[in-house]
């Protein structure tokens, strides 16, 4: 018997990952700073990988396989997209500043982190718990990258890039 609460949590996670992925692509398209574009494109790719992982777990549970091992979920390449809500409006428009885009991204990552920490506490499967803990750590790392870039942008006027060594 499939736990509908678990499936709903995975569907919410997939929607969240898709929304964040789309946001990062929009931000990368709009930002003029090469380091900023690198940050947003890299994070977009990571969010797409998270989406694949979450959807693999969803498909396995819905198909009666149970939770698949973390390595299998993490290696998922192809997936059938779940029907998800589309973003009603683009959060990044022509007048969105780089600072505003970073602040919005920071909030997205913080919300994702909190959701995954809570989901990890609720799930009983070791494979499910491992996936949610991994996702929480990844979102916290994204938060840290974005915060460093926000601080750098506000003090120097430019993006830092993906780590403290700066962007080339």
Task: Give the arrangement of secondary structure elements.
Layout (H helix, E strand, L loop, with lengths): L3 H27 L3 H29 L7 H5 L23 H25 L3 H31 L12
Helix pairs in contact: 1-2, 1-4, 2-5, 4-5
Biggest β-sheet, characterized? none
Which range does the strand content fall in?
under 5%
Gross morphology is elongated
Computed over alpha carbons, the radius of gyration is: 17 Å
Give helix and strand order, one letter per element, not per position: HHHHH
Count of domains: 1
Please bin the fraction of helical residues.
55-70%
Mean pLDDT: 89
CATH superfamily: Ferritin, core subunit, four-helix bundle
Alpha-beta classification: mainly alpha
Write down the CATH topology.
Ferritin
CATH architecture classification name? Up-down Bundle
- Overall number of strands: 0
Instruction: Give the low-pLDDT segments.
Output: none
How far is it from the N-terminal to the C-terminal residue, by CA? 52 Å
Determine and state the CATH class. Mainly Alpha
Question: Number of helix segments?
Answer: 5
Describe the structure.
The structure is a single chain. This protein has 168 residues and is mainly α. The chain is elongated and about 55 Å long.
Jot down its keywords:
168 residues; single chain; mainly alpha; Ferritin
Short summary of the structure?
This protein is mostly helical. The protein has helices at 4-30, 34-62, 70-74, 98-122, 126-156.
């Amino acid at each position: 018997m499939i736990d509908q609460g678990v499936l709903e949590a995975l569907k919410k996670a997939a929607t969240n990952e898709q929304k964040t992925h789309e946001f990062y692509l929009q931000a990368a398209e709009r930002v003029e700073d090469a380091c900023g574009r690198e940050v947003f494109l890299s994070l977009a790719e990571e969010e797409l990988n998270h989406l694949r992982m979450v959807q693999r777990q969803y498909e396995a549970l819905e198909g009666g396989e149970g939770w698949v091992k973390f390595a299998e979920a993490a290696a998922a390449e192809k997936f059938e997209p779940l029907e998800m809500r589309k973003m009603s409006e683009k959060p990044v428009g022509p007048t969105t500043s780089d600072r505003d885009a970073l602040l919005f991204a920071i909030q997205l990552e913080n919300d994702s982190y909190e959701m995954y920490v809570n989901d990890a506490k609720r799930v009983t499967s070791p494979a499910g718990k491992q996936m949610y803990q991994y996702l929480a750590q990844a979102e916290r790392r994204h938060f840290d990258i974005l915060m460093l870039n926000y601080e750098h942008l506000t003090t120097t006027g430019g993006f830092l890039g993906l780590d403290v060594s700066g962007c080339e």
